[in-house]
Request: fold
Amino acid sequence: MDEKIPKELALQLYETMQRIRSFEMAVVELFARGKIPGFLHTYVGEEAVAAGVCAALRPDDKIISTHRGHGHLIAKGGRLDLMMAELFGKRTGYCKGKGGSMHIAEPDLGMLGANAIVGAGIAIINGAALTAQYLGTDQVAVAFFGDGASNTGVFHEALNMASVWNLPSIFVCENNGYAESTPKHQHQKIKDVAVRAVAYDMPSIIVDGNDVGAVYRAAQEAVARARVGGGPTLIEAKTYRLRGHYEGDPQMYRTREEIESWEKKCPLERWRKVLLAADVPAEGIEEIDRRIEQELKEAVAFAEESPLPDPAEARSDIFTPLPAEM
Amino acid sequence: MVQMTYREALKQALREELQNDERVFMLGEDIAEFGGTFKVSLGLLEEFGPRRIRNTPLSESAILGAAVGAAATGLRPIAEIMYSDFFAVALDQVVNQAAKMRYMFGGKLSLPLTIRTTMGGRRSAAAQHSQCLEAWFMHVPGLKIAMPSNAYDAKGLLKSGVRDPNPTIIFENKMLYNTSGEVPEEPYFVPWGRANVVREGTDVTVVALSDMVDFSLKAAERLADEGISLEVIDPRTLVPLDIDTIVQSVQKTGRLVIAHEACVTGGVGAEIGSQAAYHALDYLTAPIERVGAKDSPIPFSPILEREILPDDQDVVDAVHRTIDYSA
Ligand SMILES: Cc1ncc(C[n+]2csc(CCOP(=O)(O)OP(=O)(O)O)c2C)c(N)n1
Ligand SMILES: [Mg+2]
Reply:
């Protein structure tokens, strides 16, 4: 194993990935059973990106997510029970049932929300980075987004602003090869999204997004630079989503063989092998798996048992009440 | 009280709020050395420095996105959109992000964000630099909207807007920047959601927005000669809307004219009229009249622009229709 990653951290990376995978697989099943309303975009196959990046962050650093946001919240410390309750549309969920899968958020954990407008978070994260720069803290701010999002105008506007203001923004492109059904070669001519950083005189890193250790090191490099005023970085993590764009996607746009070839590169399997090769005892890993299984059971039970929101609250939380002196 | 221009009053509000709270800062295109296209922020860079008076790239989405993110993480940004027409390239950040973030997150954060922008025509600025788009935003729950019609309100509303823990949009009227009004020397606030009865009257209620207040006052003078008494009400803010003051007036006069510069179709006059009719139907003695631009892109040539945009004559005509109406 990579000697730069201590065993404890290596296990933590595994645990985060496993927590994401297990949550997503549970959610897939619950969705199929009609327990979860709305859309569901899962992060299955891409766990190493969120896990690796967030392991390089401090609790007070900020992130902003996408429509595929469960993994980011989990990696930033989100609780499975409160997440599950939110996906169920329950009063006890992270957003009191007002956000759901696509808007799940916990500002107290520095997670500024999943966002169902592709690309939007890339601009917003600059504001979080600006707050850190403005107040003279050394926090950094990370925007996750997809290869599809790298074609929005806001991607270019935001990278330019981050660059010219030297913001502690880190742009993490989860290049999973598709924007919904559109394969990357049909939506952009460039092979690597990372080349777009050149236009903004910004350093970039291309990393195997299914290798959590490599993602962690790439993120560490970007975080270290941003913390000391070295400015933004564009990280491109090459990965793949193993399930449909959304649950129920018939996936006519790709072949079984292609999916299987990526299943062989499953980031959890790969990391488990790395751990075992580094003499991490198998029981240690199994213990993590068991703990998460239990945590999930409790999360589902919590969501099931939680009350629905009171319709009388449907219009609360639109505006913040004015302070007393106003 | 001192005489002061609308522009100077806005600048004073900005200065006082920048002095009051270190978390307040401004960002926008050409707002620093240049002082903004309309010179509202001229001189603030020298006073507050480039950290707080920030020139941005020409990127409306990046400006508003950064403002949203900064507000979500503890600052109090004042973003400037040079012309409200330019909102069109960055609406997502206002409509889908700023307006909804607190709600989507179950009340977990506040967005103390102010957007200053300019509105209106009468300057031969043609179709892409003259619009009044307040109706777009009134239709999006989660945003507060002010349309100051004079120097006193401009200062007081902007100050309250900056202190408000919610996203606020202030539409500054380009034709009003050089107009003067009385402004107190000591700091003051104008609360949002409280209409101003600018002129009391008994025969017809005229609800007027932004510079249509001045046109309506002119119309009131002209109509007074005919013995028609107008009550002119400036709602000051569209969200929150002080419908009570409007309804009370309609209950007194029985006639309502709503005047704004935006085109009539789909304009906020429809909303105000509908609410007023709902609450005061039995008092109305004539159909509610709406005065606004004729439905058209704003033309360039002054003679064409005058044809499209409303003025005091349109208010006078509308008032006459309400008086002459017989069921
Ligand atoms: C502005 C916008 N356009 C389109 C959509 C519909 N949509 C949702 S996700 C998606 C594809 C996004 O692709 P990518 O950015 O690569 O992210 P991925 O889904 O692959 O994680 C599309 C087209 C949207 N939500 N927002
Ligand atoms: Mg993609």
About this structure: Chain A has a mean pLDDT of 97. Chain A is about 45% helix and 10% strand.
